[in-house]
Amino acid sequence: MTTEIAVINRLGVALAADSAVTIPGYGADKVFNTGDKLFELSERYPVALMVNGSMDFLGVPWEIIAKEFRCTTPDGAATLTIKQWMERFLNFLAGHPTVKPGDVRRWQDGLIEEELDSITAIVRDRLEAAAAEDGEQNIHDVLRGLYTTVMAERVQALAQNPLLESLAGVTVDAILPTVRSIVAELETQRIPFDANADQREFFANVIAQRLLSDLDRLTATGLIVAGFGGKDLFPSLYAVDIDGFIAGQLRYRASHDVTISRGEDTGTAISFAQTDVVDRLLKGTDNRFIDGARAFIKENVSGSLERNFTRLKLKISRSDGSEISPSEMGGLLGDLIASQFESKFAANLRTEFERKFKETIALMPKQDLIELAEALVSITAIERKASDDAGTVGGPIDVALITRAEGFVWIKRKHHFKADLNPRYMWRRFGKHTQEGSDEEE
């Protein structure tokens, strides 16, 4: 994981990213503190890219893809908006050698294995109770019924999710043939019973629905493009979450679209990836507190009403004379008060905190934008050190500022080599040598 910050007003946008990269799969997560997540996206135009989440796409590091794109000049670059810069980058990615059938297939296999593991975990949790209810049934019949039920629930839940915008026009029927062929090749030991054709078809529908609507995976990446479009007086930012490739198209959805103007939207700070610490500072609270408070209110209002009505032997009657149990009434009242807390009090509190910060950020000079961006990342890293976190935020903080006049400028940047030790590189790259003792890299 990571923490990244964009602080933006009419003067420019300051970007800051930590260097911690978490690699799962070693028994325990492995954390490296030297990852690059902030890149200059164009050699000529004031545009930057930040990445978070997975640090590669289909096995190729984002750093390689970003630096290759930087060496190109998109058609009409001088007039592109920031959103269009993102579109050009995604088009470049879709046509990149990264997207090979074998790599896409491995990614699809990983998603299918992940989904099957999730379904199996739910079945395992329900197995004991189901076996107790149907003690005379064969265990394979119990498993078969549970898998069918869980898959039906999963299809219904996924169908409620909005279609990924990048896959507009792609239907479940269009990708089912591909998914069916992959599911047909699943090893029989992956399912603890002999799945029949109907159940394999059910599972294929689960996978198809997930491919079209769900990005909640460890392999997903957040991409943020920020800077100035060709005709923009003020900066803007556009971000997407992306994961995988299906039906000849990338799977992604927009997450942020920020445009600074003369009117109300004159400044703001946006956090990406691990946002809880920054939310507490900029919004007065975070989702963990709101969710916990909501659960506390619901539980205690419900329990208190039920206990007191039972103790006082009170009854609640409907207009038709039928009785409402204290537990039912307590649940309804607890839900009502908890939802009012969330939608009224908590929402108003966050809105007021945000409004005050935005008003201040809108007035900040460039140096203060830089300092705030770096400080917000640093605060998160310090909080993680003081908690039981595995160190998922940390390492050197890279900071850059983009303005209309100066373009992309590094403020702080970690280096893996010194310029004065590599004069031939400096000559190849820039046609000159740097001053002795200076640090510079690509």
Automatic annotation (TrEMBL):
State the superkingdom. Answer: Bacteria
What is the protein's name according to its record? Uncharacterized protein
Report the source organism. Mesorhizobium helmanticense
